[in-house]
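Researcher: For the annotation table, I need structure tokens for Cholesterol 16beta,22S-hydroxylase. Please keep the output clean. Sequence:
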Amino acid sequence: MPTQILIFSLLPTILFLVAALVLLVIRGKNERRKKRGLNIPPGTMGWPFIGETFSFMRTHSCTSLGHYLEDRKSRYGKIFRSHIFGKPTIVSLDAEFNRFVLLNDGKLFEPCFPKSVEAVLGKNAMLLLSGEIHSRMKTLCLTFMSIGRLRTRFLIDVESSVTQTLDSWKENSPFPAQEEVCKVAFNLMVKNIMSMNPGEPETEKVRRAYAKFMKGVLAIPLNLPWSSFRKALQSRSCILKAIEELMEKRVHEVEMGTDEIGEEDLMGYVLKNSTLNAEEFGDLLLGLLFGGHETSTTAMTLIIYFLHDCPTAVQQLREEHLRIIKAKRERGEPKALTWDDYKQMEFTQCVISEALRLGSVIRFVHRKATTDVQFKGYDIPSGWSIIPVFAAAHLDPSMYEDPEKFNPWRWQGDSLNTARIEYYMPFGQGARNCAGLELAKLEFAVFLHHLVLNFDWEVAEPDSPLTYAFPEFPKGLPIKVRRLSLV
């Protein structure tokens, strides 16, 4: 017992000495680089061991860069060094450098996410892959989510998922909008990935597991019983087990001659056109759910939030979608939306673009320099982490007048300019841009079509989106709706 007491009493001192030693090693490396004549961007490495991680992770309004980034930009400029997530890091608020990083992905840079993300998503998640294996995975997804399939299959499923959820909304009874749009995105994804239908016991089991899974993707990696990280790992195992059982059932039915492997869902497509095993497909699925479901849910919630304070935009949206409905009636067509209807939603796309700009659903990514890189007179040492912050360009007053104001008309006609197009990155850029971007835009447009034609809404409780990596509404954006009779 006395020995244990002595150890515990010395533990803070030991930890401090270890942290100090790590800091000395890092500073020693920096000094050696300076002696070699490298011009590393200015900045500070923060506290021993933890660096500036907690300052970087502090939540703030999603329509701003937050105190940490604004403070460092005023001190050091748009490109500065720090020590984040245990690694020496270059943080970039420079639109040109961010685009340079994305366009040279796989050449000068590669993905470098925190270990906790890899542990939860899996090593085969497309978000974490690079090189040839990433290209193969992305080609698989792009082929499955082709424009032809969007026209013939996904459009029908998107509209079905949207109307099924919106039909359940009750008037004058507050509910969290984020939870409701989550159902739209989740049901669409699992239907097209594994042919799982909404409301079924197995679907609900996976949905509950996925909710816990998401809370741990970006959590502090403490593998303790009560931690979000441990719960996420357990949920990952639950989801992978469900996937493995579904794959085995599908293969067994084929072997017994009671069914054949079709290509109606991604699982069938993968079984027929690739050699991925259950774990690899599971990692692919979790990565797609993370990239597709979470971003879609956030984007649709932001659209509801921003439109609430912009009735002029809501009215113009209604006029656009009523014209589409009226034209369909005159032609004697059914109510169901067609691809031609979707392509007429021009102002709708302006609203979507503005919500993605102001909300910056994907605010930054993690990369690592695979070789020494020079940019604008700065040297980026090989092995250093790079964090390109896309939100910096989206909120830059030199590119957007009143950048913190929701203004969908800024995306019309002559108001566009080259800088905006090049540095607008809601879906990334280059070889690693989002494989599901066309599906996402289709999903948002169909959701808006049915929302504005069938409902008025108001915020039931004050709630604003806060963000670190993704925007999130602390209360889930409680709203009350009133049904309309426009169609």
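Researcher: And a one-line annotation?
Model: The longest helix spans residues 2-35.
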